[in-house]
Amino acid sequence: MSIDDTPKMSWWNRLAHPGQFVNWTRPLIWPLVAVTAALFALGLWFAFFNSPADYQMGDTVRIMYVHVPTAWLSQFVYGAMAVSAIGTLVWRHPMADVSMKAAAPLGAVFTAMALFTGSMWGRPTWGTFWEWDGRMTSTLILLFIYLGIVALWRAFDDQLRAARVVAIFTLVGAINVPIIKFSVDWWSTLHQPASVFRPDGPTMPGSILTPLFVMFFAFTFLFITLQLVAMHTEVRRRRVMTLERKAARGAGA
Amino acid sequence: MTGFLGVLRRDLRLALAGGGDILTLVLFFVIVGAIVPFAVGPDRELLARIAPGVIWIAAFLAMLLGLDKLFRPDRDEGTLALYRLADLSLPGMVAAKVIAHWLTAALPLIVASPFLALILAMDMDTYWRTLASLLLGTPALAAFGTFGAAVTVAIRRGGLLAPILIAPLSVPVLIFGVGAISPLGGPDQASAAMLFLAALSLMALALSPFAAGLAIDWGEE
């Protein structure tokens, strides 16, 4: 009698194979694209035609429907990156590496969009493109951290080593982000009164909240879709590099 | 423990014998501070108001400048590989490096800071507080900087990358460092900032050797 001691392949282990991962998740992409497009269509229709203009800010309030979701994503993507970093460090999961690498530029773009729309909104309502307000400052620093992580990824030749080092940096950054946020809040309340930049706007009525929620989900789904596509691209890029290396070795011999 | 002391002694001896690295760093610090009046004008009141910030920026930049010398020469000549092979804990080695970095790249700047205080028209009271905040805050900068150097040591041309990675993380140190000096927030705010600064330094000193040791271990093959 023999005991079958071959380990069972769990879905988690199977997912670690890049080809399997691509095969399994490829059917998800088109439904995700459809959901994202539908949510954007609904959200934009609400935002442009079916929500009231603010009685103080007028039509500029509609910038909020892009600004708030991208600002939320700027933090959510860092969270996704930190979770992937734990996956890299603890389980050495190959797909966690790929997910971490795919998320960094996406996070940088969402953060830049939040800053850009924020300053577009700030100009007509506060009268300035930029103010050293606590939230804006910490978002700017978050953008710098994202760009630093992208630069770190690009500086390594060997992507496996890069993944582990970037994972450590991402986690150290994750510890630091709340400290930065706290210190910046402390600093800007010290230097300027928090009167102008926290206007007690109208408490949000449902007519504004509905489009905001729809846009919020639209952007989150946009991130998930882009993340998946970027992961597939990264898997293929690695395969191309391996094939090129193999071809070069064959040509040399 | 002997390994820790050995690394510390070796780094200090190299820095002291190494043909004026420390002097160059101090010169850089003094020159950055001395260039500011040319840029903003020799108005004594304005200079006195921005002097704590100027000294902090100059120290920050000077410490970033020295990062590339922390691990790269060791890696190029193979000492880092020996550290990894030897029966020596990497966090302990990094802790020795942090201390050596602070002694050779931060302490000389603090010693030179009275000169900048003099030409930037600081008054005595502000200077004492600047001195205290530098003493409390630069260990955090040294710890963050060592971590940045450890993360980028495996990259061949990573010299400029460490400052870019570390600068955003160092923002709280600058905020609390200058906040501990400036009388804008009143004395209780300043002492709160001083406590936060000390907390940051302690936390960074305690955690960075482990993170940096891990980065060195996993960045090499």
Automatic annotation (TrEMBL), chain B:
GO terms for biological process: cytochrome c biosynthetic process; cytochrome complex assembly. It is a multi-pass membrane protein. One of its GO terms (cellular component) is plasma membrane. NCBIfam families: ccmB. Required for the export of heme to the periplasm for the biogenesis of c-type cytochromes. PANTHER family: CYTOCHROME C BIOGENESIS B-RELATED, HEME EXPORTER PROTEIN B. The lineage of its organism: Bacteria, Pseudomonadati, Pseudomonadota, Alphaproteobacteria, Hyphomicrobiales. The keyword Transport applies. The chain crosses the membrane at residues 12-40, 46-67, 102-122, 134-155, 161-181, 193-216. Its main location: membrane. The keyword Glycosyltransferase does not apply. It is found in: Cell inner membrane. This is Heme exporter protein B. It comes from the Bacteria. Belongs to the CcmB/CycW/HelB family. GO terms for molecular function: heme transmembrane transporter activity. Pfam families: CcmB. Keywords: Cell inner membrane, Cell membrane, Cytochrome c-type biogenesis, Membrane, Transmembrane, Transmembrane helix, Transport.
